Amino acid sequence: MTCIICHTPLSTGLSGWHRTCPSCDYESGALTVAINHAAGHAEIDETVRETALKALRQDNFRAIVALTRQFAASGACTLLDVGSDHGWFLESASGAFDVLGIEPDERVGAKCAARGLPVRIGYFPQALNAEERFDIIVFNDVIEHIPDIRTALRDCYNRLTPDGTLVLNLPSSRGMFYRLSKLFARVGVHGPFSRLWQEGMPSPHVHYFNPDNLTRLVASEGFDLRHSTEIASVKAEGLWQRLTVFGNVHPLKAALQWFGIRCVLLPLMGLFPSDIIVCIFRKR
Question: Judging by DSSP bridges, how do beta strands 78-82 and 134-140 pair with one another?
C-alpha cells in the first residue's frame, strides 16, 4: 500500500486497519463502508444522533456559508451539497444560493425530502444528470469517508463551472482530540481512536488529513487553495448524546468521558488546534 498523496509506502499504524505515511503524515483506514446495511443502522439511534450534532453543525454551517459567499467567484449561485445528511447545510445555504443535496443514506435522505428539501437519494455524481454543473460543491464531513477520493475530486472538477469553488469541511489529524486518541491508543486504550475513525459505523472514516497534505492532494487534481481555517469540533450542547449514540456504552464510562471533555478539555480548546478544518479551493 502506498500513500495516495506522495506515493510513499505506508507504515503500520495503531491498529490492524490503520496505516500512516512517514513522508506527508497522511493516514489511511481500511474500514468497510456499509451505508444502507440494516446491521450498521441498528447500532445507531438517528434521533439521538440528530440531537447530538444539530446545534454544533448549525453553528458551523452558518460560518461555512459566510466563508463560501466571501471566497466564491462573483456571481456564483448554484450549490451542490454532497452527503447532505439531515439537510441542515441546505437550510443554512438556501438564503444565499440555489441549493441541491445528494444523500446516499436512503432513510436520512427520504426524511429530508419529506420536509420539502431539495435532496436526491443516491451517490455523487451518479445522482446527477449528465449536463448538470454547479458554481459551488460542498462536502461537509463527507470527503474523508470516500475510499476513491481522487476520482471524487476529478468528478468535482468536471461538475464545477469555470472558476468554480470546492468547499471541504473535515476532521484534522492535527486536532487536540485526535492527537489525544492516538496517545491513548499507544498505551493500549483504543476506544477513543476507534470512535474518531467511526469504526463499526455504516460510514467510517477511511482518510485522515491535515491542511498541508490535503491541499497537496486537492491541488494535484486542478484546484488552488483560497482559504483555510478551523471551526469548533465540540460544544457542550449535545455532548452526552454524542458520547452515547453508538454502541453499548457503559453509563459510568460515558459519564467519565463527559466530565473530562466538558470540564477539562473544552476550557482548553482555544489553546490547541481544532479537530475540524474548512478548506476552500478554486478550480483552475
Answer: parallel
pTM of full prediction above 0.90: no
> Phi first, then psi: what are they for 126, rounded to 5°?
-60, -30
**Could you tell me the three cell numbers for 199?**
469504526
d(CA 255, CA 75): 49
Q: What gap in Å lies between CA 161 and CA 41, rounded to an integer? A: 36
Contact present, 203 and 31 (Cβ < 8 Å): no
Angle at 220 between CA 156 and CA 19, to 5 degrees: 95
Q: What is the pLDDT of residue 40?
A: 52
Residue type, 274: S
- Per the CB < 8 A criterion, the answer to whether 184 and 157 are in contact is no
3-state secondary structure 195-218: HHHCCCCCCCCCEEECHHHHHHHH
The stretches in the chain having pLDDT less than 70 are 36-53, 233-250, 254, 257-259, 262, 264-265, 267-270
Q: How big is the chain by its Cα radius of gyration, in Å? A: 18
Name the grid cell of 160.
464545477
Cα distance between residue 111 and residue 75, in whole Å:
32
Widest Cα–Cα separation across the chain? 54
> How far is it, in rounded angstroms, from Cα 133 to Cα 238?
36
Helix (H) or strand (E) holding 50: helix 46-71
Q: Which domains does the chain have, with CATH numbers?
A: 36-283 (3.40.50.150)
Collect all residues with Cβ–Cβ distance below 8 Å to 140 and sequence separation of at least 6.
57, 61, 64, 81, 83, 85, 89, 169
Q: Cell numbers of 282, please?
A: 478554486
